[in-house]
Amino acid sequence: MTDQRYLKRTVVKEVVTSRYLPEESRSLRVYLPPGYSDLLSYPVVYCQDGEQFFNFGRIATIANQLILDEGVEPFIIVGVDVDLKLRTAEYAPDGARHHAYVSFFGEELIPFIEGKYPIRQESESRILAGDSLGGSVSFHIALAYPKLFHQIISFSGAFYPASLEIAEQAGDLSPLALYMIVGLQETAFKSDHGVFNFVELNREMRKILESKGASTIYGEHDGDHIWGFWQQFIPEALRTFLRMES
């Protein structure tokens, strides 16, 4: 049975305006940790597929558990919602809305959040997280804004050929640190880009990243392309980049 303390979550709904996105705004959900205070400062985790990370990944409940019971330093989570019909167009590097979404993320979302909440300003305090294409777009956002981001959580990253090519063409990636997992049953995933072996895609991406100096924590585990698999690894992924309270 889940400890009731974990279920007492503070999640604030926000809307950020945008000159890049055709809709001119985007909905967010912002998790505030137990004991939150404007007088303190916090690291932050930015999640693609925000609604899914909160509803299916249960990331707010997991965060409470890490903070209350494991001594992880309190942190804020920002879930960025996405229209599933437009997800590939925004998240895939060859998508029609990709540049607009990446620009919105780096130039509008970050200033909005950091202007409203007490977020630490150094890049070590910002983490990008995503599943599938969300992992891919997190990598591309970090490439586009290297002064803002260098820590990425990727669950079964959809590193299709366009992403692999971009990684191949990148220069020094030694500032990047990635937590990457993929399910061993993800060998014939049917996507709107075709049928792909995600295990091979992630192995290839890891190889390219490490050849360019990036550090990876990489794992292949029994599992498929579903939240029931990814959710198991959210605690470990967060511990990887968040400090323990002294």
Low-confidence stretches: none
- Strand ordering within the main sheet: 1-2-4-3-5-6-7-10
Write down the Rg: 17 Å
CATH homologous superfamily classification: Alpha/Beta hydrolase fold, catalytic domain
Order of helices and strands: HEEEHHEHHEHEHEEEHEHH
CATH classification, class level = Alpha Beta
Percentage beta strand? 15-25%
Average predicted confidence as pLDDT: 95
Silhouette: globular
InterPro entries: AB_hydrolase_fold, Esterase-like, Mycobacterial_A85_antigen
Organism: Paenibacillus glycinis
Protein name: Esterase family protein
What does this molecule look like?
By secondary structure, the chain is of the alpha/beta class. It has a single domain, classed as 3-Layer(aba) Sandwich (Rossmann fold). 37% of the residues lie in helices and 23% in strands. Strand 6, helix 7 and strand 7 form a beta-alpha-beta unit. Helix 3 crosses helix 10 and helix 7 packs parallel to helix 8. The mean pLDDT is 95. This is Esterase family protein.
